[in-house]
Amino acid sequence: MEEFATPEEMMPQSEYREISIWLDKYEDLFSDFDSSAFHERTLSDNFLTEVRKLVHQVDSDKIELKFNLMADATNTEIEGVIISNIHDYFILQAKAAQAEKQRILSTGGILTAAGFTLISILIVIGHNWGGNMILNGLEMMLDPFGWFLCWTGLDMIFVQSKKEKPTIDFNMKMANAKLTFLTFGMPVILEEIEQTVEELRKAS
């Protein structure tokens, strides 16, 4: 089972490949149809689609995802809750994808073993009781089924299980990603400066 890093165990920032996303507000990260609190709100499909495209363009497993907002739209307490929500989501998704891959491998192994066992039994029957018409008919009916089990099982092991790898890799990157919120601009300070300038003009 893969180990997931906690925020305290994250590596230095310099070792991360940066991805920046601009937000108008925190709600941009979440579904418009979910009015739950930030710690349990569903992530937006648009956000997940966009971040998947950006992450696939990065050739590193160490990612820092930076959310950029205007300074007057930030709240440190809310940001901590959102970061925890996002990490929890991708950890669950990574574990689910790993479990699905393991299920496919297990099912494929069982089908392959069952197919080879059936084929082996039919070979023994054909060798020892080849003159029995009923057993010959049974062998003819079950032989294709045995091969079908074998090929289906091998396909699940060597083909279908590999399809889960991109999903696992993406969710693992995001589960271990460093998430930060950055402020852009200083609208509150600028407003205060403008008020001061206006007062000085009136005084003069």
Task: Provide an overview of this structure.
This protein has 204 residues and is mainly α. The protein has one domain (10-196). The chain is built from five helices and three strands. The protein has helices spanning 45-56, 76-128, 133-158, 165-175, 187-203, and strands spanning 17-22, 63-70, 178-184. It has a three-stranded parallel β-sheet, with helices on one face. Helix 2 (76-128) runs antiparallel to helix 3. The longest helix is centred in the middle third of the chain and has 53 residues, at 76-128. It is rod-shaped. The model is unreliable at 186-193 (pLDDT under 50).
Structure characteristics:
3 strands, single chain, 5 helices, 204 residues
Please tally the helical runs, counting DSSP H or I stretches of 4 or more residues: 5
Main sheet: strands, sense, barrel: 3 strands, parallel
* Mean pLDDT, all residues: 83
Strand order of the largest sheet: 1-2-3
Overall shape: it is rod-shaped
What is the number of independent domains? Answer: 1
- The helix content, as a percent range, equals 55-70%
Structural category: mainly alpha
List the secondary-structure elements in sequence, H or E.
Answer: EHEHHHEH
Total strand count, please? Answer: 3
Low-confidence stretches: 186-193
N-to-C terminal Cα separation, in Å? 72 Å
Radius of gyration: 29 Å
Q: How large is the share of residues in beta strands?
A: 5-15%
